[in-house]
Design brief:
about 60% helix, mainly alpha, about 550 residues, two-stranded antiparallel sheet
Length: about 550
């Protein structure tokens, strides 16, 4: 299923006309929209997303009740879905899935890039900046998904395609990594604050159509162009990287047309022997894909979606590009279209051989389906279709639990649990939401590579939900534990934020018990200590800066 199966190619065939292409092409969004309802109704059985029963807890095998007949499965799934929504049994399903999550947690033991799982941010009074919009959530999903591929803690990465900027004998030429500043590529878009790419770094230029200079005559030329792209990304200049990729694409398309013309007219004179050595169509496809990847990182979601639509039409089996198209559409706030794309992905995954271990570098099929279902549930959640979102996220959780472990398996389960809890709060199922958040915290603690941010924000969400149902002592207990964790990292700003919430709860307790006033005074005293410490640290930092300058 590889997008690029080597660069040498036999005699190229004549490209179809634009009219023929339009007759043959089917819009993936329209196709997904047609199939989405059947996917949703059948997903609880066909996609192995029913939660395992007590006899299968701790096992990765699918539930024994899965049917072999799709017609029987569809009928049964429709009945189950109707019962869940109409008879109110979905809450018990969520509780069952949460309970299963507690008993089937496994250790991390493998590594695979996988598909990006969308996380809509924690339950909070005010949305954190990193989840301030759907575009922020998409950017964060990609950043986190590829974060562990980074060279060090100061960089993130962008996954690109085609010939690597340097020869790699171990992994071939299909996928390579470019580093970007860890502060986030979006912070340098407007001002281009990074250092500019030097003329020596930009050692590749677009083809001059009239003179024919700087032609792409070998893979070395492509690598040189990709090296310039990598340099632009590393220096925080995504616009420069996009410009370079545009130039490369124009050059490849120009030479592809020349190659086709020579084959049609038989006018080759031997002076351009390289036309038989490169698969320009594959190079054009990988360059378009790289354009869309960088556009997504640069938050140019509408432009990325346009490119990705062309890519998935040309390569319908490319699951990764389908996923990127769905995420780009979410970033552009086109939720209905993105839901249709995720539905199309589920149809494609369901048609694949279930014995296949990987699909284009994707984790096992079951985990891939779980990630797609999670992202689809997020679409419904943002569209305020809460019952639908809950049902799909429950299926996503059960599917992830039944999948094989990977390096980010527990992280994906944890974030799916957080999305489910967010939905349960919207449907007023607070007790189930608390259990779900508690399980999510357990998974986050047992996932070594997850940032502390996830643990703190999920604990804070649990405390807020507990306080909303007047479980004040439980909320205080959670906040106290958060302060201990934050003290170790010396995060004074976050500690003060937590203490502000503790003061609000203590004020509420004052209405019901005399001990509330005592606790409020204790919190205020601790808050003053933290403020004094923060002020002292600021003075020390200023003095150190003076000494350095």
């Amino acid at each position: 299923i590889s997008l690029l199966r080597g660069w040498a190619t036999p005699r190229p065939t004549v490209a179809p006309t634009r009219e023929e292409e339009e007759e043959e092409e089917s819009d993936p969004i329209e196709q997904g929209r047609e199939d989405i309802e059947s996917v949703l109704s059948a997903s609880s059985v066909i996609l192995c997303s029913a939660a395992p029963d007590a006899s299968t807890k701790g096992s990765n095998s699918p539930p024994a009740s899965i049917e072999t007949s799709e017609e029987e499965a569809l009928s049964r799934a429709v009945t189950e879905l109707s019962d869940e929504i109409d008879n109110g049994t979905a809450a018990s399903t969520a509780a069952s899935a949460t309970s299963t999550a507690k008993t089937t947690k496994k250790a991390v033991d493998t590594d695979s890039a996988g598909l990006p799982l969308l996380y809509l941010g924690p339950i909070d009074i005010k949305r954190p900046e990193r989840y301030a919009s759907l575009g922020h959530c998409v950017h964060e999903a990609l950043r986190v998904n590829y974060r562990r591929c980074a060279v060090n803690a100061l960089t993130d990465v962008v996954i690109l395609y085609g010939p690597a900027s340097s020869v790699r004998h171990d992994q071939g030429d299909n996928v390579w990594i470019a580093s970007v500043p860890s502060r986030g590529i979006d912070q340098t878009i407007a001002g281009r604050s990074g250092a500019s790419v030097s003329s020596s770094q930009r050692s590749w230029a677009p083809v001059d159509v009239d003179s024919g200079t700087n032609e792409i005559s070998s893979l070395s030329d492509v690598r040189r162009a990709h090296s310039c792209v990598a340099a632009a990304l590393a220096s925080g200049q995504p616009e420069e990287a996009l410009s370079l990729l545009d130039d490369l694409l124009s050059c490849l398309e120009h030479q592809d047309r020349e190659q086709q013309l020579e084959w049609l007219t038989g006018t080759g004179d031997g002076s351009v022997q390289h036309v038989n050595e490169l698969n320009y169509r594959s190079l054009i496809q990988s360059t378009r894909k790289n354009l869309s990847v960088v556009q997504i990182y640069a938050r140019q979601y509408s432009s990325a979606a346009r490119n990705l639509r062309d890519i998935v039409r040309a390569c319908p089996e490319d699951i990764t590009s389908h996923m990127q198209l769905g995420l780009a559409l979410i970033g552009a706030n086109q939720l209905e279209d993105s839901a249709a794309i995720f539905g199309d992905i589920l149809i494609k995954l369901d048609k694949l051989d279930t014995a296949e271990e990987t699909v284009q570098g994707i984790d096992g099929l079951s985990q891939a389906k779980g990630v797609v279902l999670n992202n689809l549930g997020c679409c419904f959640l943002k569209r305020k279709e809460f019952e639908r979102a809950r049902s799909v996220l429950q299926r996503a959780l059960a599917t992830l639990l039944s999948s094989e472990d990977s390096s980010d398996h527990t992280a994906k389960i944890a974030l799916c649990l957080c999305n489910l809890a967010k939905t349960l709060v919207q449907t007023k199922e607070f007790d189930t939401a608390l259990d779900t958040l508690d399980t999510a915290i357990t998974y986050i603690r047992d996932t070594p590579h997850m940032e502390e941010h996830y643990l703190i924000s999920t604990m804070k969400a649990k405390a807020l939900v507990a306080a909303s149902v007047k479980q004040f002592m439980e909320a205080i207990k959670i906040y106290e534990e958060m302060v201990v964790i934050l003290e170790r990292s010396e995060n004074d700003d976050e500690i003060l934020s937590v203490m502000a919430n503790m003061k609000a709860i203590a004020s509420e307790l004052c209405k019901h018990t005399s001990s509330g006033a005592t606790y409020l005074r204790m919190v205020e005293a601790r808050e003053n200590e933290v403020k004094a410490r923060k002020k002292a640290r600021s003075r020390i930092s200023a003095l150190e800066l003076d000494l350095l300058t």
